[in-house]
Design brief:
CATH topology of the largest domain: Peroxisomal Thiolase, Chain A, domain 1
Strand content: 25-35%
Bound molecules: acetyl coenzyme *A
CATH class of the largest domain: Alpha Beta
CATH architecture of the largest domain: 3-Layer(aba) Sandwich
CATH superfamily of the largest domain: Thiolase/Chalcone synthase
Number of strands: 15
Largest sheet: 5 strands, mixed
Number of domains: 2
Shape: globular
Distance between the termini: 17 Å
Order of helices and strands: EEHHEHEHEHEEEEEEEHEHHHEE
Length: 328
């Protein structure tokens, strides 16, 4: 068996409760018109206190494994990309247990909204080096737990969800190129920072304990960063794969803002009709947004086997990355 990588299944799950723009207009000083015009968002799904990130991830994972036509016990590795685990020690093992992937090693990976893309690229390394055959990657976030619901500049953006994909070792490599990038100088543009209290342990030693502060964001800076760096990352990946914009069937971008997606497509000279967007219904679901959009497009038949997809994730860190792959 060769050392190429193919994505052979995908799945997704979102919470039931839908928070509309009108709901938000009752909570903060905003309007449906402002949110739709500036972001393209109308709804976002919000996890209830009885819905966990692990449960949503397990549903998405089971659905991806079913599409892949393999048994959970054939999974060798699970990578959970999330910034909002149910457990700070990691939630990947919990998911391993929930889906019965008894032969898999599992760990979490944190790279905010770039997480799913970074998980895909990490999985590709284990496959190409021959270490693993079947890898489950999950992008999931429940940012609603950490949003400042009084801050109209950020609370309108985020929703919850989970998406998954199964990667398998194959002869003909379908991951055509990729790139990963970070810029910590701009780290303070988007944060979910630790914010605990001081606790005196002894006369000389003070520890910190507690929780995290809600999300803080410089929206304009993140916007500018995304519109500059995402087209650059995709252009580099197209060059490496010896492809032009005409070869790209679908643009699969992190769903942060419809205006960002439109601007990226324009810069790349890729028609807007090739953008896979679900932002209207789900908002920005962080690490889940790329696999959620992929799963919908595969299941409704837009994305067909052999289609070439240019994907890019970007977000806190700052982190960003691109991957060009053939579906199926
Ligand atoms: N409703 C009404 N008015 C608002 C709202 C709101 N919800 N939010 C801001 N405004 C006001 C501002 O106060 C400002 O008013 P002013 O002109 O009187 O000062 C005006 O609207 C314009 O504000 P801008 O910040 O210039 O609006 P902009 O067009 O940049 O849109 C937005 C803001 C939607 C946040 C945009 O900048 C954006 O999408 N940025 C990217 C954010 C992002 O993607 N973050 C997540 C990254 S992924 C991750 O890692 C989690």
């Amino acid at each position: 068996m060769g050392a190429g990588i193919a994505i052979i299944g995908c799945g997704s799950a979102v919470p039931e409760a839908v928070l509309t723009n009108d709901h938000l207009a009752q909570m903060v000083d905003t309007s449906d018109e402002w949110i739709v015009t500036r972001t393209g968002m109308r709804n976002r799904h919000i996890a209830s206190p009885t819905e966990s990130l692990s449960q949503l991830s397990a549903i998405a994972a089971k659905s991806a494994i079913a599409m892949a036509g393999i048994s959970p016990t054939e999974i060798d590795l699970i990578i959970l990309a999330t910034s909002t685990p149910d457990d700070m020690f990691g939630s990947a093992c919990k998911i391993q247990g929930l889906i019965g992937a008894t032969n898999a090693v599992a760990f979490d990976l944190t790279a905010a909204c770039s997480g799913f893309l970074f998980a895909l690229i990490t999985a590709s390394q284990f496959i190409r080096t021959g270490v693993h055959k079947n890898i489950l990657i999950i992008g999931a976030d429940v940012l609603s737990r950490w949003v400042d619901w009084t801050d109209r500049t950020s609370c309108i953006l985020f929703g919850d969800g989970a998406g998954a994909a199964v990667c398998q070792r194959v002869d003909d490599d379908r991951l055509l190129s990729f790139g990963m990038y970070s810029n910590g100088i701009q780290n303070d543009s988007l944060n979910l920072n630790y914010g605990g209290d001081r606790k005196l342990l002894t006369e000389d030693i003070t520890a910190q304990y507690g929780t995290f502060n809600p999300i803080t964001m410089n929206g304009k800076e993140v916007y500018r960063f995304a519109v500059a760096k995402v087209p650059e990352a995709i252009s580099k990946a197209m060059f490496q794969a010896n492809l032009t914009a005409d070869d790209i069937d679908w643009l699969l971008l992190h769903q942060a803002n419809q205006r960002i997606m439109d601007a990226v497509a324009k810069r790349l000279k890729i028609p807007q009709s090739k953008i896979l967007s679900n932002i209207e219904e789900y908002g920005n679901t962080s690490a889940a947004s790329i696999p959620l959009a992929l799963d919908a497009a595969v299941r409704d038949g837009r994305v067909k086997p052999g289609d070439i997809i240019a994907a890019s994730g970007f977000g806190a860190g700052l982190t960003w990355g691109s991957a060009i792959f053939k579906w199926g």
